[in-house]
Write a structure and sequence with these properties.
By secondary structure, this protein is an alpha/beta fold. The chain has two domains: 4-75 and 328-433, Alpha-Beta Complex (Aspartate Aminotransferase, domain 1); 77-326, Type I PLP-dependent aspartate aminotransferase-like (Major domain) (Aspartate Aminotransferase, domain 2, 3-Layer(aba) Sandwich), CATH 3.40.640.10. It is 38% helix and 16% strand. It has 14 helices and 16 strands. Helix 1 (4-11) packs across helix 13. The relative contact order is 0.16.
């Protein structure tokens, strides 16, 4: 009987040949580090709804969903039709366009903190600029982030991403002494650290659901406690909602927790599948970036980019958010799928795993004996990542179910209960084998 690796290699012969060619052109054969997995990633030819199709003709039920950005599924017709209408009128202007104004109106009504908005093309840029605004507005240097928090590849925040959270993540970084990390969901220890740096604290940036660090929701008490400290010490409270924005309901997750952030960053879902990053902020905070009223030495130059607010992204984003606003059933459907899956996976593995997540997001952790909950990235790092990779890879090879190995899963509107059954059946088989 063939094992998962042998099955995968037999099914993906064209992908292997193409990936060898890709390695000639691209570092490690990929254009994003996490897209590589052993022995080689399959090469996708097309995608539609909940499925990916590779060059060998294999079909995969997708739970990676474009880095969790495709809440309606691949090539969603609700978005595609609007983009097709826009294309004949031009896909790049380099000037102010009407689509940006109408799109911003939708965001501003849904996200109260978005009194002023600036568009970029990636989430990395959005968090980079949010940090720059915080330092400019406060005149201070230190930014605090979460152990295991991921905010893109910006040099300002590429620290304490991976366990043990006290080592340099990359060569070429400078001024890391101005980045301090705090433990997620541990308010007492976090406040102890923040209290030592409060005089030079420009801001704290937090994901309300820790994404790359383990798909772990923050407690309301923790977020409110950090916010209170930050505002009391004349710093800014920055929420990174690039993953969570418009994921659980129409708008941002912070509204459900009665938070009052100064800046919120958005991305992924709001672009409708096209490149986007959004900095949303209060008037008095965003004013620091106003080149009309601030001189060079006291403004925060947050620019944008050649392709920021391009007509296609603005059109796709508007189509996406307009559909979500009119169809709240999207959230109830995918939230129920996620809830059912988290509960069922815990039962199937019978104490071997702890499944974290919220709404339509979920991640399975193969926990050590005695661990009963996962509250932060340190807890997640104690789990068996090799086993998680094996679990995901076996489902790719044997069952045609795709998770990017080691990463969390996301349901889209194109998924159904039958997909949950297939996922749980595959998990049952894997559980019986370990």
């Amino acid at each position: 009987m063939l094992n998962a690796l042998e099955i995968y290699k037999k099914k993906t012969k064209k992908s292997r040949l193409l990936f060898v060619k890709s390695e000639k052109f691209h570092v490690n054969g990929v254009s994003h580090n996490i897209r590589f997995f052993e022995p080689y990633p399959f090469v996708t030819k097309s995608a539609k709804g909940k499925y990916l199709y590779d060059v060998d003709g294999n079909k995969y039920t997708d739970y990676w969903m474009g880095h969790w950005s495709l809440i309606l599924g691949h090539a969603a017709p609700q978005v595609a039709s609007s983009v097709k209408k826009q294309l004949p009128s031009c896909w790049m202007h380099g000037t102010v366009n009407e689509m940006t104004i109408s799109f911003s109106e939708i965001i501003q009504k849904a996200v109260p903190v978005a009194e002023k908005i600036r568009y970029v093309s990636t989430g990395t840029e959005a968090t980079m600029y949010a940090v720059r605004i915080a330092r400019s507005a406060t005149g201070k240097k230190i930014i605090a982030k979460i152990d295991g928090g991921w905010h893109g590849y910006t040099s300002d925040l590429l620290k304490s991403v991976n366990y043990p959270f006290d080592e340099t993540e990359s060569a070429g970084l400078v001024n890391e002494e101005h980045i301090v990390s705090i433990p997620y969901n541990d308010l007492e220890k976090s406040l102890e650290i923040l209290n030592r740096i409060k005089n030079d604290l420009a801001g704290v940036i937090i994901e309300p659901v820790l994404g790359g660090g383990g798909c772990i929701p923050a407690t309301k008490e923790y977020l409110l406690g950090i916010q209170e400290f930050v505002h009391k010490n004349n710093a800014l409270f920055l929420l990174d909602e690039i993953v969570t924005g418009f994921r659980f309901s129409f708008g941002c997750h912070y509204k459900t927790m009665n938070l009052d952030p100064d800046i919120v960053t958005l991305g992924k879902i709001v672009g409708g599948g096209f490149p986007i990053g959004v900095i949303c902020g209060k008037d008095e905070v965003m004013e620091i970036a106003n080149t009309k009223s601030h001189k060079k030495l006291d403004r925060s130059y947050i620019g944008g980019g050649t392709f920021s607010a391009n007509p296609i992204t603005m059109t796709s984003g508007s189509a996406m958010l307009s559909f979500l606003k009119k169809n709240s059933s999207v959230y109830s459907k995918i939230g129920n799928l996620g809830h059912h899956t988290r509960e069922a996976l815990d039962k199937i593995f019978d104490g071997k795993v702890i499944t974290t997540g919220l709404g339509s997001l979920f991640m399975t952790h193969f926990a050590p004996d005695g661990m009963i909950q996962i509250r932060n990235a340190s807890d997640a790092a104690m789990c068996d990542m090799d086993m998680l990779h094996r679990y995901h890879f076996e489902m790719i090879a044997k069952d045609g179910i795709f998770f990017l190995p080691g990463k969390l899963g996301a349901f889209s509107y194109s998924h159904s209960q039958s997909d949950v059954k297939e996922l749980l059946d595959a998990s049952n088989r894997f559980s019986a084998s370990i």
